[in-house]
Design a protein that fits this description.
The protein is about 55% helix and about 5% strand. The chain has about 525 residues and is mainly alpha-helical. The chain has a 3-stranded antiparallel β-sheet with strand order 5-7-6. Strands 1-4 form a two-stranded antiparallel ribbon. It has a two-stranded antiparallel ribbon with strand order 2-3. Strand 6 and strand 7 form a beta hairpin. It is globular. It starts with about 30 loop residues before the first helix and ends with a helix.
Amino acid sequence: MATQPMEFEPGFPQWTEIGQDSGLDPLGMQRPIEVLFQSLLPGISTITLRLRYYSFFAWALEVYAKTKGQTDPRTFNVFHRRAEVLLALASARNGSELGVTGIEWAGRQISGVEDGGDSNQVIHFDVAADPDTPPEHRYLRNKGGAFGAIYSTQMAEMGLIELANEEIGLPFCTSAALPLAHGFEEAIGDRSTDFLQILDTGKASISQLDDLSVCLPSKVVAGSIEQSGLADALLGRLGRPSSGNAARRETIRLLLSQAGKVGKRPRTDDLKWEFFELANQPGEGLSSEICEAWALYQACDLCRLAYECLLAAALVAVRGGPAARLSMQEAVAALTQQAKISGDPSFKDFLASACTDRTIRDVSEAMLAAQRRGEIGEMVKSSVFLIAQLYRRSKEFSPKVIEWLNVDDYFQSLVSEARFYEGLLKIQTSEAVGRIISERVIKRHLWVASRKLRSKAYTFLLEPDEGVLRYRDDFRVSPSSPRLDQAIQFLEDCKLLDEAGITLLGKEELART
C-alpha cells in the first residue's frame, strides 16, 4: 500500500480517542446557505412551528405589563412558562394540535387524568413550569421556555417586540405587536379572564381545559381582527418598513402564487425547484430579485450536496483499503476513475459542454438516488456533471443577488467554487477533478473537523494516520431545510392556504400591492 505523506496545512491533529460527537456539515458549507434563507424568511425559524404563538405571546406580554408590572426576570419567566404549559395542556386535551411546545409532557398528564374518568380531576402544572425545577421534571428543559428559547428572537426580528431595553430589563411589545395582542384577546373573549386565573393557581381541571379550546393554534378565525393582524405581521406590514420584512413578504407572495398555480398545498421540495427554474421570471407583480435569490440558495445547496457526495464516496474508498486506510493519492485516483471522464478534455471544455442534454434537476436527483442505493460510480459521475452544470448556472446570477451571500471568504459556496474552477481551466479534467476532491473536499473536511476540535467536538469522518487517511465514520447526505415548511404552515394558520391551495383570503393578499 502506498504510504506517501500527505501535505496538510499546519495544525491538523493526529488520530486520537477523544469521544466522538456526531458531526453535521462536514465541509462547513451550510453557513452561506443559511445566510440566504435567513435573509429571505426572517422572523421564521425551523422551530417556530405555529403562527398563533406570535399573537399569543404578544397578548401575554401585554397582560404581564398591565397586571404584574414586575421587572424581576424570574417572575416574568414563571409567568410565561405557566402560560405556555397551560396552552400545551389545552392543546393536548384537544388531541389534534401539532407544533405546540411541551405537548408531549402535556399529553402524558392528560392521559393520566383521563384514565380516571373524572372531568373535575386536577392537573398541577406549577412545578413543571418553574424554571428552577430539575430539568427532568420540567415541561421543557430550556429555562427560557418557548418564548425565550424559540419565539422571542423571531418576534424581535419582525419588529414585534423589544428584547434588550436597558431601562425596563424585560421584553415588551412594540406598537407593531399591539394589533396581535388585541386580536388574540378579542378572539378568546371571556376566556381571557379564565386563562389568567388558572395560570395564577398553577392547576387546571379537564373541564377547564376544554373551555380553553378557543386558544388553540388552529382556532384562528378567518376574517377576524387576529387573523388580519397575523397576515399583516407575516407579510411585513406591521411596524416600520425593513429589508427583512420586505424579503419575507415577497417570499410569501411567491408561495401564494405557486399554491395558486398547483391548486394544492405546496411542497417544499417542489417549491425549491420551481423558484430555481423561474429565477428572473416569477410572474407579474412578483419580485424577480427574491426569486433569483431563492435560485441562488438552491444552487449553493446543490453544490454542497455534490461535494458531500464526493466526500461520501471518498469514505467508501478509504474504508475499502487495507485496515480501512488509504493514501490521499489512492483515494483521489479511485474517485477520479469512477468519474469516467470521456476523452479527458481540458477542464474549460468540460465545464462548457458536460451534460448539456440533461437538466440540473435530473442530474442532482440521479446523484442523490445513487447515493441512497450505494452506487458509488454513478454518484461520483453525477456529482462531477452537476459541478459543471452549476458552474454554468453561476454565470447567470446578477451581482446584486450575489451580494446576498454575505459571508467570510473561508466559507465555501457556489461562488467561491466557481472562482476556484477558474484557476483550473487550462488543465485536463481528470487533474482538475482530482484537485477538487483533494483540496475542496477531503482536505476541507479535515480543516473543518480540526476547527471543531477546538471546542472538543471530534467530528472527523476521515483522519490523518501516519501519513495516510484512516476511515472513521459515515454521514447522511441530504438537502437543507430552508424554513419553507414553516412558512407554509403559517399561511395555513392564518387562513391564506389550505389543502386545496390558495384560499380566497390568500388571493386577496396576493392582489394587494
